[in-house]
């Protein structure tokens, strides 16, 4: 059975960057499931689908071909033949991803693809419903969170570095809006699995969080080199 590690948590908890480092240290792949919902959202934006119209989302979802590939261990997210990895991080795509992820057909398709990948490869998988739905029997489950203000502060600092001057208050408001949507949707809302280890990174450095996760993994799988 492949090694499967599930990491869930809210917006900006640092899941992606932490998951990248943990996966690198363990020499396994990292599946960023948010990128799959984001690619689906990009398809909807390009096709001018009304995000409030579940039927329109469901119909457009049938035409979208979201795929994941790995190049030198790094995830590439594809829409059909197009590598859209670099187009998925805008505010517009983030908001649309949260909206499309409410749609049952979208979730069904994404979850099926994620389970297929997890059954084939040693992987660390991050998202919102990995430990509670996608891989309910994952041997290691982590719920990674931090105070909303701290998550917004980190996101704001990242954006400033990239030249995006969106004010902190707006970053915090957007983050709270997405959390609210992700935690209260009808299907597979974000919540901590009962058997997930809770890690609150508010006062931890990235290295400390990475070390803490490796320790949990080693407790289950033993040391790897
Ligand atoms: O992790 P992220 O911010 O890239 O995710 C983008 C959106 O996708 C998020 O707001 C909710 C949705 N998502 C989801 O519903 N289930 C997942 N497993 C991963 C992401």
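Q: What amino acid sequence fits the structure above?
A:
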């Amino acid at each position: 059975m492949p090694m499967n590690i599930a990491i869930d948590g809210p917006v900006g908890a640092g899941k992606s960057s932490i998951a990248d480092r943990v996966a690198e240290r363990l020499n396994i792949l990292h599946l960023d499931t948010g990128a799959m919902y984001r690619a689906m959202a990009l398809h909807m934006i390009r096709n001018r689908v009304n995000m409030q119209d579940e039927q329109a989302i469901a119909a457009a979802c049938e035409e979208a071909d979201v795929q994941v590939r790995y190049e030198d261990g790094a995830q590439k997210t594809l829409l059909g033949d197009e590598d859209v990895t670099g187009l998925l991080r805008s505010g517009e795509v983030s908001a649309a991803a949260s909206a499309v992820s409410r749609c049952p057909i979208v979730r069904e398709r994404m979850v099926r693809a994620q389970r297929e990948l997890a059954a084939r490869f040693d992987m660390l998988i991050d998202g919102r419903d990995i430990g509670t739905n996608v891989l309910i029997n994952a041997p290691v489950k982590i719920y990674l969170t931090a105070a909303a203000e701290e998550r917004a502060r980190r996101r704001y600092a990242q954006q400033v570095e990239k030249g995006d001057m969106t004010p902190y208050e707006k970053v915090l408001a957007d983050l709270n809006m997405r959390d609210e949507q992700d935690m209260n949707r009808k299907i597979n809302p974000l919540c901590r699995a009962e058997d997930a280890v809770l890690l609150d990174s508010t006062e931890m450095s990235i290295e400390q969080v990475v070390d803490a996760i490796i320790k949990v993994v080693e407790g289950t799988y033993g040391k790897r080199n």
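Q: And what stands out in the fold?
A: Strands lie at 4-8, 29-32, 66-71, 74-79, 82-83, 123-127, 140-145, 197-200.
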